[in-house]
Design goal:
Blueprint: E1 6-9, H1 12-19, E2 26-28, H2 36-49, E3 51-53, H3 59-71, E4 76-77, H4 98-106, E5 109-110, H5 120-126, H6 134-145, H7 152-161, H8 166-177
Parallel strand pairs: 1-2, 1-3, 3-4
Antiparallel strand pairs: 4-5
Helix pairs in contact: 6-8
Length: 179
């Protein structure tokens, strides 16, 4: 699989895992602290061919993702679910299977300034917030939408950016309940 964008990952092992399945320029941040120099390199890569942020599904990974998103609003994102990126004790891109990595890269998303009109009340109505099984339903829907897991507020934000409608969520919930 050939990818024209530069892929930004956290560590060397993430890069090695991706190089087994893709032909791409891969930039390693080497940890959760992004220096001004590293951010400038990412900005230059974005100007040339675009950038895909593919960080670990953990707190440091989310922090890096947000720092890059703040600097480059139209950057692309590839997401992994924690369960798909876990070994016995650690979470990371390098622990995901080849199939999961390919699927994440095939479902890259760009956060848009245009949002759906989905609201927190919609999530409550659909059982995705303030209900006993909300967390499990959100997790299942997030998996199907290829967005990061999270609480109701972060799930709503990602759905809005991805322009997911209430009806689309209703259909996903049915799929989740029928599994």
């Amino acid at each position: 699989m050939k990818i024209k964008e530069t892929i930004v990952v956290e560590g060397y092992h993430d890069k090695q895992a991706l190089l087994k399945i893709v032909e791409a320029n891969i930039l390693v941040t080497q940890g959760s602290y992004l220096s001004e120099k590293t951010l400038k390199v990412i900005e230059e890569a974005h100007k040339e061919n675009g950038v895909i942020v593919f960080t670990d599904p953990d707190t440091p990974g989310k922090k890096i993702r947000q720092m890059i998103q703040d600097r480059i609003p139209d950057v692309k994102h590839a997401h992994l679910m924690q369960k798909d990126a876990r070994d016995k004790h650690k979470v990371g891109v390098e622990h995901a299977s080849k199939d999961v990595l390919i699927k994440a890269l095939e479902n890259v998303m760009t956060i848009s300034n245009e949002h759906s009109d989905l609201t927190l009340n919609d999530l409550i109505d659909l059982g995705l917030s303030s209900h006993p099984e909300s967390q499990a339903l959100r997790k299942c829907c997030a998996e199907k939408l290829f967005i990061a897991e999270g609480n109701a507020k972060s799930f709503l934000k990602q759905c809005q950016f991805k322009q997911v409608t209430k009806e689309e969520l209703r259909e996903l919930i049915q799929l989740c309940k029928n599994q």
